[in-house]
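Sync notes, pocket subgroup
Present: LS, DG
LS reminded everyone that the earlier model was apo-only. Rerun requested with MGD included. Inputs:
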Amino acid sequence: MKVYTTACPRNCYSTCAMRVEVEDGRIRRIEPHAGNAATAGGVCLKGLSYVERVYSPDRVLHPLRRNPERGTFERISWDEALGIIAGKLTELRADPGPQSVLYYQASGTKGLLNALGMKFWRLYGGCTTTYGDLCWPAGLEATRLTLGDNKHSAPWDIADARLIVLWGKNAAETNIHQMVFIDQALDAGAQLVVIDPRRTESAERAALLIQPRPGSDGALALAVAHLLIKADQIDHDFIERHVLGFPGFAAMVDEFTPERAAGITDVPLRYIHRLAEYFGAIAPATISPGYGMQRFTNSGQTMRAMLAVLAITGNIGRPGAGWVYANLQSHIFDAVRDPLALYPPQKPDGVVRVSISTARLGPAMLETRDPPLRMAWVERGNPITQNPETNTVLEAFRGLDFRVVVDQFLTDTAREADIVLPAKTMFEQSDVIGAYWHSYIQLKQKVIEPPGEVKPESEVYRLLAQRLGLARADDPQAFPVSDAEVEAYLEKALQPFPELTLDRLREGPQLAPGQEEVAYSDFRFPTRSGKIELESHEAVERWGVDPLPLYREPVESLRRHVPDPDVYPLYLLTPNTKNRIHSQFNNLMMIRQLGDEPLLYMHPDDAAKRHIRDGEWVRVFNDRGELVLESRLDNGLKAGCVCVTNGWWISEGGTVNFCSAARETDMGYGAAFHDVRVQVEVVRDG
Ligand SMILES: Nc1nc2c(c(=O)[nH]1)N[C@H]1C(S)=C(S)[C@@H](COP(=O)(O)OP(=O)(O)OC[C@H]3O[C@@H](n4cnc5c(=O)[nH]c(N)nc54)[C@H](O)[C@@H]3O)O[C@H]1N2
Ligand SMILES: Nc1nc2c(c(=O)[nH]1)N[C@H]1C(S)=C(S)[C@@H](COP(=O)(O)OP(=O)(O)OC[C@H]3O[C@@H](n4cnc5c(=O)[nH]c(N)nc54)[C@H](O)[C@@H]3O)O[C@H]1N2
Ligand code: SF4
Ligand SMILES: [Mo]
């Protein structure tokens, strides 16, 4: 038996280190690895289910071609698959041009080697790519505009906080290892505040649960700032030294009384006062905002308002204090820290590239002209279930001539493909990965040979490049295939960082060079002014928003008249959930045995108005689409909100994005998934 050190590359805060036991070329067991101090306690159930995932009978193990008449998939050889794809690519490059091919990739797995795909498409002559991101960009951009960078203190620093605010984050499900440090803080006497329209597991030990109307948190933050300034519970010295725009901000929030905020947020006045009292009286304070609360058309500005509460109370750059949103200190290889990387690429490398919005993928695909899109290549993503406005995404995919999907399973997106290519799992090719909560660089090791006829993407691209006769087709630094080539590729990428070698990474996680335990402890803020910017001219120039984080209603707010509040009176929340990562894992017995199903959570008052009982089938709908699922009455959910977790497949009946809108956030080109109103009605006799 051999034991390997590796790390989980899912799009998950934790990015756990783990040990994998391999016997006779098969994975036997997964165990925690204490070398990652952020995840020392162990992996989650999804991590344990990898043993099943790798060997799942549902895994795609060879290329498949769809029989258009029967809609079924037939096994074909690699030779045939690559021949068909290369033929199509040659034809489309000549007419109407390489930009008629969409290269779509999303968050299925982390890793340096993933960047390879773009290398292929550049050599091909360009393609259409996507800009923006489904996940976190409004918050990233708000943070960068305010603090200058996206980094935060080490995960364990929150154990030293005395006030912790989980603001629109459900760490008990989405960042389980953070709860360990939060529990340590609470055991030492800290107070926990949770701000979420749902009463989640994260609120179990909370001293205060505030349930705002979705999308209204900006108003709450401004009222808290108002009260702190009125009570003179602000850090004048810190503001003087480190904050830009305080006088303008103070004048703006002067009008933002708690009464006004109570009207906007639907939060009882005394809760707003209590929250301000906590910030006024308790230090150090950490706000850990979630990604769930920045899925609105006003959320960049909301995040700036929340950050202002920390800035005026001096809760930045000190142990136990700060803004725990995204920690990109381990992103040493890629361009994520460069915010411009999020923006539409402008003809880099002299190769003309077109770029369309990922948040508006469906409509943008349909709108694309000169040339129109004719083919899509999807890798590491499941856009049919995960991108907004499923019906439009489906229409756009079905309107193409040709679709290739590279995946481990026959997902909803793969089912739309003409050719499905089998994808590797994390255990079948080595890669180096960073994280976005802790600062470890980790080696995701190859521990077994790919099963069946699975080939990693790097090999698929090499073979295609060879067929197309592209430059560098045989260059292992462009497309590494053998284990030795992959290692050489990774070693080269690690060269600028002498502390990081593959040998050291094989032993365990390594902290990123220069990582800061307490972020901004030098009080250097790489904004334009060098200060924390409450007033941002860059925000105006780049995003056309107000220079101060003024409160504006999101597009589908009930305080607006469109859509008609009587027709669509309920806010639809579609957060993440414990035992799946988006659309992954629920096809495994280990997860399915828990019995989770797509359910519509609803407050009993909203259900009573519609004569809906617990467990009845309901239709959730708006003008964009509908889904039919079982109801669950939930006293912990704010009345006026309904909730379905995201990630269910169409075949499971719960693809939430049938109802969401293809709409961008106010900054960062994110997706405003939660800016959605629906109606719910009972379905009987059906
Ligand atoms: N187990 C598990 N872990 C995961 C993931 C997963 O799928 N499963 N996904 C990973 C990824 S990619 C992401 S992006 C993160 C996301 O994880 P989180 O950051 O926790 O985000 P969400 O689960 O989307 O939403 C968190 C909470 O925000 C609340 N919320 C929604 N709208 C509002 C609002 O207007 N105001 C306030 N205050 N709260 C609101 C929701 O009710 C929800 O409980 O989790 C990561 N970790
Ligand atoms: N309504 C609503 N929609 C949402 C959200 C929400 O909160 N509400 N959350 C959004 C967020 S935060 C995110 S991050 C996105 C996630 O959206 P996606 O990134 O599209 O999500 P996943 O469901 O994780 O799909 C990833 C796919 O990659 C495959 N995969 C895994 N590893 C590999 C590999 O090595 N190679 C290849 N080729 N494939 C691989 C998996 O099998 C899976 O099918 O969803 C977004 N969608
Ligand atoms: S899914 Fe997240 S918590 Fe689970 S093993 Fe992977 S990184 Fe760890
Ligand atoms: Mo995400």
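DG: Residues 78-94 form the longest helix (17 residues).
LS: The chain has 22 helices and 27 strands.
Action: DG to write up.
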